[in-house]
Amino acid sequence: MTKRVLVVTDAWRPQINGVVRSIEPLMELAPRHGLEIEIMSPDMFRTVPLPTYPEIKLAITSAGRVGRLIRDREPDCIHIATEGPLGRAARRACIRNGWKFSTAYHTRFPEYVAERKIAPARFLYWILRRFHASSQAVLVATDALHQDLEARGFKNLVRWTRGVDTRRFYPRELPGRDPSSPVFIYVGRIAVEKNIDHFLSLDLPGKKMVVGDGPELNRLKREYPDVHFTGALEGEALAEAYRNADVFVFPSRTDTFGLVLLEALASGLPIAAFPVMGPKDILGESGCGVLSEDLRSAALQALDIPSWRCVEHAATFSWDVSMDQFVRAVDVGPLGWSKRPSLLPAVSFPEKVTTAGEPTR
């Protein structure tokens, strides 16, 4: 019997970001794992644009309305993917009705907000700790993020890794790089917290390419006219952009994971990045990139890393493993209205779940 999972998310199409790109592969794999995933997103409600980031639409709704919509669907599992207005309304509805739910920590909002000088990171972590405190399982992408959140008082942390589609992302055929004119590429949102200025200001040989869209795009185009900005790309166009590059430069210091790193590796691109959460977790001891506080030096050294090493390492990340972890993490118990038995046995995570005390204030 198919288990129905309702995923509540403030981030959905037409947005292109880590939340969307983490959920979409699971929807494709769901039937093979006995799941049916339904999305509740802002396009079901009246919305307003997010200040400073109008591409993102915020849902205007209430816990009562969201609760009624959840009850109408009678899902077997409720997973709240984001901490925005819709996620918060869903959380309140679940608590009011005694429905168990899981959550995910996708984005380091405290750092993002601090970069925009809106509020201090400490205050935002207090809010997020309260948001996730009632969750039966808080899904996190890496060990480093697990340890960081545990130290900040978060509890019920469970690993949920990510994968990469190696049928779409693969290296170019020989001949390989042109050593006289290397191409350094960045792929991702064009926003202040991504620290793209640092990459574009580096004195590097060859060319720089930036793939993506966001509130900083027009400014960067004006300030760096020699850089090739493609805008947002998807599908084969995105895969081709990776294949036309030589090194992937990742200047962000605030990402929790970085799916683009896996796509770059699968495309045969070595990574140049700062030694921070995300790149450190993905690269490990693979030798597929260079992590350094001197990003220019890292980018130049990465040119000497063979493509085959990157491809082999990317192949160790599987969406099937990610799906299996997701299925077990969101299966937090019956919600009360369905008589159908759970498809999975009761699962505990003694090595994954923290027992930190209640959030401090």
Task: Give a nutshell description of this structure.
This protein is of the alpha/beta class.
What does this molecule look like?
By secondary structure, the protein is of the alpha/beta class. It folds into two domains: 3-163 and 319-330, Glycogen Phosphorylase B (Rossmann fold); 183-314, Glycogen Phosphorylase B (Rossmann fold). The protein has 14 helices and 14 strands. The chain has helices at residues 18-29, 63-73, 85-97, 109-115, 121-132, 143-151, 196-200, 217-223, 235-243, 259-266, 279-283, 295-302, 307-314, 319-330, and strands spanning 3-8, 35-40, 46-50, 53-60, 77-80, 102-104, 138-140, 157-159, 183-187, 207-211, 228-231, 247-250, 271-273, 289-291. The strands form three sheets. The chain has a six-stranded parallel beta sheet with strand order 2-1-5-6-7-8, with helices on both faces. A six-stranded parallel beta sheet has the order 11-10-9-12-13-14, with helices on both faces. Helix 7 (196-200) links the parallel strand 9 (183-187) and strand 10. The termini are far apart. The relative contact order is 0.15.
